[in-house]
């Protein structure tokens, strides 16, 4: 949703339908990474525990979200008029660079 909102606010791509392929690829990569992290955390912490692997997976997914936004948010030099000059949406926090 963050990536879709960033593209919508900065007018990236043609329309939502045209961006669907990239969003599916980004969402699938996050889902695969989260599933692999969940399995790894379950293996490291033991199969009987659920809360600790869940919290570790959520923290790791949040850490993976930043590179996803940094790579996919908008290419440098993309001709946008709404988020110029750095193609970062106005709602993105200043303390987290992309």
Structure description:
The chain has 98 residues and is an all-alpha fold. The protein contains three helices and no strands. 62% of the residues lie in helices and 0% in strands. Helix 2 packs antiparallel against helix 3.
Kindly summarize this structure in a few lines.
It contains 3 helices and no strands. The protein has helices at 2-10, 16-45, 51-72. Helix 2 runs antiparallel to helix 3.
Reconstruct the topology from this structure.
Layout: H1 2-10, H2 16-45, H3 51-72
Helix pairs in contact: 2-3
Largest sheet, in brief, is: none
Could you tell me the number of beta strands?
A: 0
Number of helices: 3
Q: State the oligomer.
A: single chain
Note the run of SSEs as H and E.
Answer: HHH
* Span of the ends, CA to CA: 17 Å
Low-confidence stretches: none
Mean pLDDT: 76
Quickly give the structural class: mainly alpha
As a percent range, the share of helical residues equals 55-70%
Strand content: under 5%
What Rg, in angstroms, do the CA atoms define? 16 Å
Give the overall form.
Answer: elongated
């Amino acid at each position: 949703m963050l990536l879709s909102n960033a593209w919508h606010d900065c007018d990236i791509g043609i329309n939502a339908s045209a961006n669907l392929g990239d969003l599916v690829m980004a969402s699938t990569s996050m889902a695969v990474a989260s599933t692999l992290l969940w399995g790894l955390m379950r293996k490291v912490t033991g199969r009987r525990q659920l809360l600790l692997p869940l919290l570790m997976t959520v923290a790791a997914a949040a850490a993976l979200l930043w590179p996803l936004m940094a790579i996919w948010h908008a290419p440098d030099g993309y001709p946008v008029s709404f988020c110029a000059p750095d193609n970062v949406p106005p709602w993105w926090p200043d303390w987290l660079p992309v």
